[in-house]
Amino acid sequence: MTNPTAANLGRRSALTLAGSAGIAAAATGSRKANAADVTLAIWTGYPELVPWYQAMGAEYTKAKGTKITVLSTTLREHEQKLAAAVPTGTGPDVFDVGQILAIKFIEGGLIKPNPTAVDGLLKSGAYRKTSIEQFTVEGKTYGLPQLFSTPAMFWNKALFKEAGLSGPPNTFQEKMAFAKKLVKFDASGKMTRSGMSLRLSGQGSGIAEKFRFILEPAGGTLIKPNGKGKFSQGYDNDAGRNALKYYIDAVQIEKVDDPKVQHDAGAFVAGNTAMLMREAWVIGEIKEKNPTLDYGVAPIPAWGTGPHKTLLQHNGLWVNAKSKNIDAAYDFQLFLAGKESMVKLTQTSGWVAARADLDWTPLLKEIPQYKEFVNPTEGMQFYPEPVMAAWDEIESRLADKLPGAYVDASLQDPAKLAAFIKAAAAQTDQILKQNDLYGT
Amino acid sequence: MLFCYVALAPVLALFFYVRIIPIGFSFLLSFYKWNLISPRRPFVGWDNYLGLLDDENFLLALKNTTIYSFSTVLLSTVLALPLAVFLSRKSRLSAFYQTVYFLPVITPLVPVSIAWKWIYDYNYGILNYGLSFLGIKSVAWLTDPDIALWALVIMGVWKVLGYNLVLFLVGIRNISGELLEAASIDGASDWQRFWRITLPLLKPILLYVLVTSTIAAYNVFTQVYVMTLGSQSAPGQAVRMLVFDIYTNGFQFFRMGYASAEAVILTLIVLGLTVIQFAMVREDKVKEG
Q1: Residue B254 to residue A389, Cβ atoms within 8 A
Q2: Which residues of B touch A76 (CB under 8 A)?
Q3: How many CB pairs lie under 8 A apart between chains A and B?
Q4: Is the Cβ of B228 closer than 8 Å to some Cβ of chain A?
Q5: Which of A8, A73, A268, A423 is the most buried (most CB within 10 A)?
Q6: Which ranges of B123-147 would DSSP assign to H, the alpha helix?
Q7: CA A155, CA B106: separation in Å to the nearest integer?
Q8: Taking the domains of chain A in order of start, what are their residue ranges?
């Protein structure tokens, strides 16, 4: 698959990238940089990955002599630091970040095409086809997939049993019916436990990302490609209206969730919600904060008779093109991507490693709830996050509008709901136009 | 005289380097399209400014920031003034109360914002707990889009009240006791002494408070950022402010030129308000003259 952003690469960037490919390949041929006096700086936006980086760094130092330092900040700060430091040559040697930011570095020539050894590993069968496609731009591979992140549905077995429900819902329609049996109110009518925890408030792209959990199974999408490298909104349709109606029904009609009650992983861990759609890291939270919680993990429900669909996000491991120890950096990148290292990543952080050729049997024996994340249900369809620089803005701008819509009683009127979706979709198209990405 | 200029030169040079150059660079950048990372930086003329006119997020942020600023400045001034008059009276507890009111000013904003997030919590917040004793039903301070902005105003007033109070207190204590004593002998009531003597003499300080509070209020950011973080927080649109919008465009979407144009507009607004306030002082001086 040709990456959608390929069309955005300027001639100058393409020439830079092509030229640097040869240099990178030549550089990795040498191992001179792996000397005891070399120190590699690693930056991560995931504090929970620090123990893994440190453990692998210690092993690498023992084997090769190269010292490793790890700097961790929150994800948002990490992205800002990278954006300021990498172009000015003051960034780390190796860093992890999502592809939405990485594509900007690739466009700017600040991440080079993979040298032969890294490219070889990516195409060796160790990774899924989807992963390889996501790390390919204009036929060249960049970086290595590190985390393979998909949401699934956590359900509280004890609460289900209490409500007389034997298993998780298979469709969103069932989910709503189940949630009505699971929600709890106190004597004054105040919700004390939600039947399902949706993302209803706050700000940022996460709100739109969670909206997609329902939109995509319902048959819509935020942006649809035209096959010629351009895109247009894909939710000013029945799917978009149904997805928004689902939220409005949940909050205003069926009253199975409320912005005022506790939400997200915290609510699920504390038993304050019965169902939550989230990624594998919640397992780590449960293990740490409420290890006796009786819960299961099921696939994201289907929309009616439609297929099961779930979001696929990758986090990548990248080498800074301006690294002064670039050959050592590539070597360490390969070391981190090794099989043993990747298993350790999941064991220590809770995130699922991106390699597809790992033996998960010991992990599943210890924590069976990982099954849906490491071996998703047969027939599960993945919808990947589009690799384009404007994606965060598209999601964030929609996210700005959604919390208000979820609690807006006037949107119970189908005509007003349709008008809201139309306006939001027009904004999506406008962002695509501003970025020269619009086309039907 | 030459020595003064030479001695000031390093400080001025530093000021020029860390203040003037970045401001000038931001102004220049507002005419370019740049994502901070790419070496390409095409000149787009007035496009960024024209884009702002149609940008509903910017217009909403401008409206919210103006409501927040005027409310915070007005309430913090109106409350600080009588408190300062009250605390200017000789009392054993005066110093204690001054400390209490000034504490929020010196407390770092991030932990304070997190604390207020808890205070405002619908289920476990101390504010709703207190209101329950008065028979008032719990209020969704942060998650209700119609109330969230006012929750920020309350916090903003709490934060700045002590600072304004101390400034007024200094002004009041500098007013000659003889004037007030003479007024008392002439039979003026407390209210008349305040209205005819204290307030007119406090005018320069009042204007200083208004100018600095307005500038600070238009630059509100930290509490907005903290209070919209996470799922249990204020809806972003309800409390969207100008600096937050600049931050989002600049450091989240990496639209540095566009964010710079917003920053220039913000500077012009604050500059305009300051000029108006200074003009009022000048007008006063002319009248006095």
Answers
A1: yes
A2: 252
A3: 101
A4: yes
A5: A268
A6: 126-133
A7: 45
A8: 16-150+312-376, 152-311+387-434
In CATH terms, the fold of domain A16-150+312-376 is D-Maltodextrin-Binding Protein; domain 2 (3.40.190)
- Residue B77 touches partner A, C-beta closer than 8 Å: no
B140 with A260: Cβ contact below 8 A: yes
Task: Specify if B20 maps to a domain.
Answer: no
Query: CB contact, 8 Å: B53 with chain A?
Result: no
Is B25 in CB contact (< 8 Å) with chain A? no
Q: How many Å apart are CA B283 and CA B287, to the nearest integer?
A: 6
pLDDT in tens, A343-365: 999 988 888 999 999 999 988 99
Domain range for B252: 36-288
Q: What is the percentage of chain B residues whose pLDDT exceeds 70?
A: 97
* Single pTM value for the model: 0.83
Token couple for A253: 């009609």
CB atoms A401 and B237 under 8 Å: yes
Bridge partners of A278? Answer: A152
- Overall number of domains in chain B: 1
Interface test with A, best of B129, B143, B152 (most A CBs within 10 A): B143
A384 in reach of chain B (CB within 8 A) = no
Is residue B23 situated within a structural domain? no
Asked if A76 reaches chain B (Cβ–Cβ under 8 Å), the answer is yes
pLDDT tens, position by position, A231-280: 999 999 999 999 999 999 999 999 999 999 999 999 999 999 999 999 99
Interface of A with B in 91-130 (CB under 8 A): 104-105, 107-110
Residue B265's CATH number: 1.10.3720.10
* B53 Cβ contact partners less than 8 Å away, ≥ 6 residues apart: none
Tokens 């002998």 belong to residue: B185
For an interface test with A, the pick among B35, B118, B139, B231 (most A C-beta atoms closer than 10 Å) comes out as B231
- A320: tokens are 């800074």
Question: Which CATH class name applies to A152-311+387-434?
Answer: alpha beta
> 3-class DSSP state for residue A293?
coil
Closest CA of chain A from B210, distance in Å: 31
Lowest mean pLDDT among B204-218, B220-234, B240-254: B220-234
Convert the pLDDT of each residue in B239-248 to its tens digit. 899 999 999 9
Instruction: Residue B238: list chain A partners with CB under 8 A.
Output: 403-404
Whether B231 sits inside 8 A of A263 (CB atoms) is yes
Cβ atoms B260, B48 nearer than 8 A: yes
Contact B245, B51 (CB under 8 A): no
Closest CA to B240 of B61, B59, B52, B58: B61
pLDDT the model gives residue B238: 86
ipTM above 0.85, yes or no: no
